[in-house]
Design goal:
Elements: H1 51-60, H2 80-93, H3 98-110, H4 114-126, H5 130-142, H6 150-162, H7 166-178, H8 186-197, H9 202-214, H10 222-233, H11 238-250, H12 258-270, H13 274-286, H14 294-306, H15 310-322, H16 330-342, H17 346-358, H18 366-378, H19 382-394, H20 402-413, H21 418-428
Helix pairs in contact: 1-2, 1-3, 2-3, 3-4, 3-5, 4-5, 5-6, 5-7, 6-7, 7-8, 8-9, 9-10, 10-11, 11-12, 12-13, 13-14, 14-15, 15-16, 16-17, 17-18, 18-19, 19-20, 20-21
C-alpha cells in the first residue's frame, strides 16, 4: 500500500478548505521586487470610510489586504448572513466602492451564491480590488461558477499579484506551476509562491516548500523545504502538516522521525484533511511511529474515502478484502475498488481485476477481469502488466498467447517487478507451471 501524494496544493486556501488540487510547494527565491499595478484599490482613508464601510470590512475583508491585516479573515471564516447584510448596506451608502463590491461578492461566494457574486466580482475587478481580482481570477481559471477562461483568469491574477496581494500571488504561482492560462514556468511559479510566502500566507509557504522538495524552479533542497513547511505548520496549515509529515517519515534531508510524522498527520486529519486522514491510516495500519490500530486505520481511510479520495478507497478495500480492522466483506471491497479505479487509482484496478478473476464478492467474470487488468497495464502499472501476462499465458477468457504473455512479463520486469522477472525466466526456460502469486498491490 502506498501513501498518498503529500503535496496537497490548493488554488485558493480561502474558500475551498477541503479541496485538494495537488500543488507543489517550493522554496524561496531571492531578489523579488513587486510593482504596484495601476488601479490598485488601496485602503480608504479613515476620514472617508463610514461606519457601514467599516462594518463590511470587518465582516468580509481579507487579512492580506493592505490596511485590513488585523481584521481580515479567511473566506471560510466569514459569517455569510451577517456579511451579506452589512456589505449590502454599505453598498447602498457607497454604490461606487470597488472594495465594498468585492467584499459583498466574496460573502456571496462564501455562501455558495455565484450568481450574485459574479456581477459584483466583474465590477470590483474592473475597479482594481485585489480580493476580487484573486477570487474571480481563480473562478475563471477553474470554471467555478463561470465559463472557464484560463487566459483571462491569469490576467486578473497577474494584476492582483503585481499589486502585492498574497492570495493572487499564490494563485498566479499555481497558474505558472500547471501552465493554466500562461506558459508553464516553474521559476515564475516559485517566484510568486515566494512573494506570497514572505507575506505569511501558509498555503504559499507550503507550495514553496514543495518546489524545494521537488527541485522545480529552485535547486532541490530538503532542508529549505522543511523550513518552509515548518513556517506554515506554525499557522496550523493542514497541507504543510501533511507535507512536513512526509519529509519526516521518509527522512528527507534529515533523520527520519515517524513519531512526529504521526503527530502532524493527526493534526491534519483532525482538520478534516483527506491526505492527513489517509496517511494517518497508513501509519496506524502498519505501526509506523505508533502502535498498530487496524480499526482506527480503517476509520481514517473511511473518512478520506468519504471525501472522494481514490487511494483511501483502495486502502480501505484492502482491509475489507483481508478482514483486517473490519469484518471481511468481498462485496464491499469490490465496490470500493471499483470507485477507486474509476477515480484513476490503478492499484485498485489491479485488485479489482483479481476479484473478478477469482470470483470474490462477485461471480467469476473473465471479461471484467481482463477489462480492469488491461486498464492498469495500459497505464504502465507493473503488477497489472504481470497479471495481464498471467491471463494470456493461461488463456483466462482469452486465447492463450505465450508470446503476448512474455511481452507483458517483460514490460513489468523492466520496471523491476520480481514476480514478472521470475515468470519471464520460467517461460523462456520452457516452464509450463502457471504463474504464481497474482499479488495484490500494496
Amino acid at each position: 500500500m502506498l501513501l498518498a501524494l503529500l503535496d496537497c496544493r490548493k488554488r485558493l486556501e480561502t474558500w475551498e478548505k477541503a479541496l485538494s488540487k495537488s500543488l507543489i510547494v517550493r522554496g524561496p527565491l531571492a531578489g523579488l521586487s513587486l510593482v504596484l499595478a495601476a488601479g490598485l484599490a488601496l485602503p480608504v482613508p479613515a476620514a472617508l470610510a463610514g461606519p457601514a464601510f467599516d462594518a463590511c470590512a470587518a465582516a468580509a475583508a481579507s487579512q492580506y489586504e493592505p490596511g485590513f491585516e488585523t481584521i481580515g479573515r479567511e473566506t471560510w471564516d466569514i459569517d455569510t448572513t451577517k456579511a451579506i447584510e452589512l456589505c449590502s448596506k454599505a453598498l447602498r451608502e457607497e454604490p461606487d466602492s470597488a472594495q465594498v463590491k468585492g467584499w459583498l461578492a466574496r460573502a456571496y461566494f462564501a455562501n455558495g451564491d455565484t450568481e450574485d457574486a459574479v456581477p459584483l466580482f466583474e465590477e470590483a475587478s474592473a475597479g482594481g480590488h485585489v480580493v476580487a481580482l484573486a477570487i474571480y481570477g481563480d473562478m475563471l481559471t477553474t470554471g467555478d461558477g463561470v465559463d472557464q477562461d484560463m487566459e483571462r483568469g491569469a490576467q486578473l491574477l497577474t494584476e492582483g499579484a503585481e499589486a502585492g496581494f498574497a492570495m493572487a500571488q499564490n494563485s498566479l504561482g499555481l497558474s505558472y506551476d500547471f501552465g493554466e492560462g500562461v506558459e508553464q514556468d516553474y521559476t515564475e511559479a516559485a517566484r510568486w509562491y515566494r512573494a506570497a510566502a514572505e507575506q505569511g500566507m501558509p498555503k504559499a509557504q507550503s507550495n514553496l516548500g514543495l518546489m524545494y522538495q521537488d527541485g522545480l524552479g529552485v535547486p532541490r533542497d530538503y532542508v529549505a523545504a522543511a523550513a518552509w513547511f515548518e513556517r506554515a505548520v506554525d499557522q496550523g496549515d493542514p497541507s504543510a502538516q501533511v507535507n512536513l509529515g512526509k519529509v519526516l517519515q521518509d527522512g528527507l534531508g534529515q533523520k527520519a522521525d515517524p513519531e512526529r510524522a504521526v503527530e502532524l498527520y493527526t493534526l491534519a486529519a483532525n482538520q478534516g484533511d483527506r491526505f492527513g486522514q489517509n496517511n494517518l491510516g497508513f501509519m496506524l495500519e502498519n505501526g509506523i511511529g505508533t502502535e498498530v490500530d487496524l480499526e482506527a486505520a480503517a476509520e481514517n481511510y473511511r473518512l478520506a474515502a468519504d471525501q472522494g479520495m481514490a487511494l483511501a478507497k483502495h486502502n480501505l478495500a484492502l482491509l475489507y478484502e483481508d478482514g483486517r480492522g473490519v469484518k471481511q466483506n468481498y462485496k464491499e471491497a469490490l465496490d470500493l475498488y471499483t470507485e477507486a479505479a474509476e477515480g484513476g487509482e490503478m492499484r485498485a484496478a489491479v485488485n479489482l481485476g483479481l476479484l473478478y478473476l477469482d470470483g470474490l464478492g462477485t461471480d467469476v467474470n473473465y471479461d471484467e477481469a481482463l477489462h480492469w487488468t488491461q486498464i492498469a497495464a495500459d497505464a504502465g502499472q507493473p503488477i497489472g502488466l504481470n497479471n495481464l501476462g498471467h491471463i494470456y499465458e493461461n488463456g483466462l477468457g482469452v486465447t492463450a498467447d505465450l508470446d503476448l504473455a512474455k511481452s507483458y512479463y517483460q514490460a513489468a520486469a523492466d520496471q523491476g517487478y520480481q514476480l514478472a522477472v521470475d515468470n519471464l525466466a520460467r517461460l523462456n526456460a520452457g516452464g509450463t507451471t502457471p504463474a504464481v502469486g497474482k499479488t495484490k498491490t500494496k
